[in-house]
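hi support,

uploading two proteins for the ticket. first:
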Amino acid sequence: MKLKSLKSKKTNKMSTIKVFLIFFGTIVGAGFASGREVYVYFARFGIWGLLMTILAGIAFFILGYVFLQLGKNCKVDSLSDFFKLLFGKFAHIFEIIIIFSYIIVLGAMFAGFDSLQKIIFPYFSFPIIALIGAILCVFTVLGGIDKISKLNGILLPLLLVFLISIFVVSIVKAPIQNYTNALNVTYGSLFNSIGCCIIFVCSNMFLTGFVLMKTGTETTKNVDKKASILTGLVLSIITFFASLSIILNPTSIQYDMPFVYLAFGVSNIFVILSVIILWLAIFTTAVATMFTISWWLSGYINDKLIAVILTCLISFLLSRVGFSVIIDIFYPLTGFMDIIFVICAIILYKKINAIKNYEHTSIMNYNKKIN
């Protein structure tokens, strides 16, 4: 009995870590790892921004748990079925908008590979780094959730060690007067900082929500809760110190990638490492996004390989228009969906809890009850 109990505890711990790696790895993408996202949503608000990192951690815990439970309780076979539960008679409209949004994000990730290539090989125009990234994404997605989790298990520790090293050095090296300025000054209103925090959380849950749903079908309620708490806690801590490092080094905000600038303050080796880490951060987000699109497409195409390759091809072709074009023109088109998506998911979660014995209700009958 003791041996069985120990095995059960070990299994739960491994499952918790697996969910954490998938959840955390999707959120800490290129925007976060470059420092630009941290500045836009938190650091530019000073003290208010630091306080919002705590709120963001709590929100990620709650929403992570909600999506994991939705995957477990809805018991859908495809994303199309979930869209019907989530949006009712408007499912097909939102389905097209959401999948198009995901294709835009994946295209931006491939274009991000091109931007890194310009830093490393400025005179080499053939998109070799993007092609390598795309091929690796295809093989990883074909391996399923377990493959993604194992990959994140290797990449995320490297990412965390790198980021923490930059934060520690930049915070310690910051002039004393910068500490005084940081403590005495707030930028913008509390209302604006709360709004940016909500947008940050919703945009990231929009990317990771479907992956968490798929993951939730294989986990227990206890694992879901622990993994969500762990993710929220780690994200809150890492975002707090990331914001503080930027606040204490205000010159960094003049650059597109503040953390790369901070890396110059450590050593030239760290600058090279920062480019590598950014590639890994882009890759983890690209994998999660490609997984979601191919999962949806597999509902219409029985062959998983064709679904994944087609997903990759469409997004790669979109990426050829350039990173700045995608960010400036296409990204704003997807913004409103983030908040709507999260709100609808919360409403669905509430409806599920309000219906007794939903475990024995078929998808069609359940859909009639909630609409």
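and the second one:
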Amino acid sequence: MNPLTQNPLCTRLVSQQVASAGSISSNIEEGYGRRSRADYARFLVIARGSATETRGRYKQRFKHWLPPEIVATRVALCEEIIAILSATIRNLRPEP
């Protein structure tokens, strides 16, 4: 069992993290389903916000509960997702 799920102090924190991480893929999927570049880009911006929220929670809150190497790995994955989303958003939006 995961010690975070056993700790009553972490119940809400874990729940929030699962929700924000899940929101990343949900917004990508919803935006893609809209079949419009503008809508897709808008949902990718929302997904990027969720990725940023997820990264921040690892850096600021989970650092007190998880080993530093796990936090560093998960933060790096979030940063990779943010970079991919940012590049895709730039490619979808028309040049000014």
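thanks. also noticed: The mean pLDDT is 93.
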